[in-house]
Amino acid sequence: MIYRAPFPDDYALTYGVISRRVIAWFIDLALIVVILFSLWLALLLFGLLTLGLGFGALGVLPFVPFCYHFLSLISPLSATPGQHWLGLIVLQNDSFARPTALQAVISTLLFYLTLATSGLLLLAALVTTRHRTLHDLLSGLVVVRSAAWQPLTPPYGYGNIPGGSPYA
């Protein structure tokens, strides 16, 4: 028999998620800018100290935002720092488990592809169930309020593992 924790209704999970996601995005954007500037400065100094040989390392800068989102989604928090600070968590839509690495890659790539195409596709969250964006739909993820979800899972969100102990 498969163990399934009782899920609250979608309203409790997703109330206020859209506005929190927007604010979280601005927080994450500010953090990415700080990280990029710090890394740029360090790599610039490295390039100067190596008499120009280290300037090629500046080529890693475009990958910083992708790594920021990807590593945040597969972290134990299962959210970017901005999302975590605003009480959001990213989970699999079907089982409410943490995202897999493949889902995190797909979600991150599609998110940046959506931003590159003017970002208007993010408005899909206004009309979809659980306020999911297109990159959420295609990666099988959902963003929910962690306060509405935490009482239903053991510590660190490892509930709903089929056949798993509810005390894991």
Extended strand count: 2
Strand order of the largest sheet: 1-2
What is the tally of helical segments? 7
Instruction: Give the N-to-C terminal Cα separation.
Output: 18 Å
- Stretches where pLDDT is under 50 for at least 5 consecutive residues are 156-168
What does this structure look like?
With 168 residues, the chain is mainly α. It has one domain. A two-stranded antiparallel ribbon has the order 1-2. The two termini are 18 Å apart. The C terminus is likely disordered.
Blueprint of the fold:
Layout: H1 10-14, H2 17-49, H3 64-73, H4 81-85, E1 88-92, H5 101-116, H6 134-139, E2 141-145, H7 146-149
Helix pairs in contact: 3-5
In a few lines, what is going on in this structure?
This protein is mainly alpha-helical and 168 residues long. It is built from seven helices and two strands.
